Amino acid sequence: MIEVGLNHFLIVSTFLFSLGIYGIITRKNAIMVLMGVELILNSANINFIAFARYGNFGLQGDLIALFVIVLAAAEAAIALAIVLNIYKTLATVNIDEVDSLKD
Amino acid sequence: MYDIIFYLFAAVTLVSAFFVVTNRNVVYSAFFLLFTFFGIAGIYVLLGADFVAVVQVIVYVGGILILLLFGVMLTNKITNVEIKTGTINILPAAIGVGIFAGVLLAALINSDWKTLPAGKPLPTTALLGSMLIQDYLLVFELLGIILLIALIGAASIARREKV
Question: What is the per-residue pLDDT for B27?
Answer without folding.
Answer: 86
